[in-house]
Amino acid sequence: MRTVFTGAARAALVLATCRAFYLPGVAPRTFRYGDKVELKVNKLTSVHTQIPYDYYSLKFCRPRGGIKQATENLGEFLSGDLIENSPYHLFMEQDQFCKVLCQVDLTKSDVAALKTIIREEYHHNWIIDNLPAASIVDSEQYIITAYAGGFPVGYQDHKASYLFNHVNIIVEYHPLDDGSRVVGFYVEPFTVKHKFANDAKWDGSGEAPPLSTCDKSGPMVYEAIAAKQDVQTGPVIFTYDVLWRASNVKWASRWDIYLSMDNAVPDKVHWFSIVNSLLIVLFLTVMVAMIMVRNLHRDIVRYNRVLSDEEKAEDREESGWKLVHADVFRPPDKLPMLFCVCVGTGVQVLLCAAIALIFAAAGFLSPANRGSLATAVLVLFVMMGIFAGYASATLYKTFKGRLWQKCTLCTAFAFPGVCFATFLTFDMLLYNYGSTGAVPVSSLISLLALWFGVSVPLVFVGAYLGYKREPLAYPTITSNIPREVPTPQPWYLSVWFTTTVGGILPFGACFVELFFILSSMWMDQYYYVFGFTGLVFIILVATCCEITIVLCYFQLCSENHRWWWRSFLTSGSTAFYVFAYSVDYFRRLGADEWFTYVLYFGYMGLICVGLFLLTGTCGFLACLWFTKKIYASIKVD
Q: What is the pLDDT of residues 331-375, one digit of tens each?
């Protein structure tokens, strides 16, 4: 046992070293003094609605040469990113103060839209040199710096709405011999009711008159603001300052402060999660060891012992799991094809998650490559279709099923079809909202091409290989007449009880890390401690396997041979606890839109279905190995 714990601790140390490691993903760009540094704008986001909007859907200043969209990958489209150029002009190491960007006239509809956006706490998401803007928000009491989620469009104070129409753009650079590289990007927003000096007027053409509300000799400070810009009809002047600061941070390390949130979440929190999970695994390992070493060894010795003449004369009746040796490998009598499809899809999800975590922990899925994680998961899921087809076909052939074409079609279309139908429904609703979360038609065609052109053929290839191989070999021969399960069974071995209990410990092994994963998904937080995630994933799989083996042994001892579906449901119930936890987590969003409820619970339900298939497959495979192992060790007539 000490060896097991030591090995787990070593694995934790190895994986933890990867928690903040990543490959840059993009080539560094060196700027010389006076070079133009482009500032790009991304979608407007709110954690309360989860509905992203185009930056230029509101009446903000637009670039004079027109709006140009940046090239994006499939993962960025799926996440609703819409990166465009902006009218802001920045030049390397050249400070600028009190620069007038534009003047817009707000109509009643513009005011209503801005008030709604501010009330729902939407945020800007700006980018310089592929680096997102951190937010510095000043108030009378404190200054808050946030490294994720962008900076707010405005704020409300006693029903009055105020617009941030001035920004201090702070860019940190690392000087080199041949130029400088951008290593930090901050935006400090202010609300200022600007006025032109001498009550001058400006129609937007030519150079703007000087302002009386800001100083060209230095950046804007909170104490210098005389009046705030409330959201009302009429002209609004947008301005900005640019400050350049030299930094010792090297370009390769510029993402560190974003990923660690400036050490807002200490490592000891993740270590607490790991220690908690290891204790659960240790407890289950001891239970499994006791069953394997004590009970099973005693049972096997008793079953294999040669009876004396006196014992034969007594015709002693045996009891326990040996009595169901002729039925333990009998195919499930309820929905055998569905069982094969679930196991095949579970293998697909399991391999996809494991390989994606390996690449992420190794640093290949860089945060600089937006959408890389979503793209990687999608491609891996498609490529793992061959293993889904192989697993379902092998199991279905072992069950002596004849409708192999139907089984293969269900494997290729059931879970992916549910995912695509859900995604398409939400996509149409987002399109109706005018959101950037609505995926373009070209991206939908790409998804369909991946599904029908790659995934489905791979499933059929895997199924062909599965049907060509020999069925799974069992150590015992299944009888023609099924054995009746003794009744009544103990209450603690009922399907509902074992299913309910089976998911508690696996969920307990991962719930701390689950909080951070949900925060990255729904609260616009960065998550990049994939070393910890990989270790928690291993612990989750191990816990599912061990708890299922324990309950399966008790079930067989009660002479109940119907373990196939029970083993799947026992560990698969982890997904129900995750969904229940997500219901509790939803309160943090403070949602007030009906569509936010639909979007959140729709996607969380889909994720939990995938988790159900993954954990259920782990439990079934563990029980299959366990039953084959124990029945191969006894002598049967």
A: 888 899 999 999 999 999 999 999 999 998 887 887 777 788 888
Cα dihedral sign, 18-21-26-27: negative
Tell me which residue of 510, 494, 508 sits closest to 569, measured CA to CA: 494
| Cα–Cα distance, 563 to 413 (Å, whole number) | 27
Sheet strands side by side (includes 179-190)? 96-106, 234-246, 166-176, 179-190, 134-138, 143-146
Sheet containing 84-85: order of strands: 84-85, 39-41, 126-128, 131-132
Using CA atoms, how far apart are residues 193 and 237, in angstroms rounded to an integer? 8
Question: What b/e string do you get for 225-263 counting C-beta neighbours within 10 Å, with b at 16 or more?
Answer: beebbebeeeebbbbbbbbbeebeeebeebbebbbbeee
Residue 575's pLDDT band, with cuts at 50, 70 and 90, is very high
Where b means 16+ CB within 10 Å and e means fewer, 393-427 reads bbbbbbbebeebeebbbbbbbebbeebbeebeebb
Euclidean distance between CA atoms 180 and 30, whole angstroms: 5
Which residue's structure tokens are 């704008």? 41
User: Measured between alpha carbons, how far is 531 from 520 in angstroms, rounded to an integer?
Assistant: 16
- The span from the CA of 396 to the CA of 535, in Å, is 33
- Side chain identity, residue 388: A
Confidence of residue 495 (pLDDT cuts 50, 70, 90): confident
User: Which three-class secondary structure string do you get for 318-382?
Assistant: CCCHHHHCCCCCCCCCCCHHHHHHHHHHHHHHHHHHHHHHHHHHCCCCCCCCCCHHHHHHHHHHH
Annotate 84-104 with DSSP letters as a single string: EE-S--EETT--EEEEEEEEE
Tell me how far apart the alpha carbons of residues 387 and 410 are, in angstroms, rounded to a whole number: 14
- Reported as a single tens digit per residue, the pLDDT across 4-23 is 334 444 444 443 344 444 45
HSE-up (13 A, CA, CB side) for residue 286: 7
* Percent of the residues in the chain that have a pLDDT greater than 70, as a whole number: 87
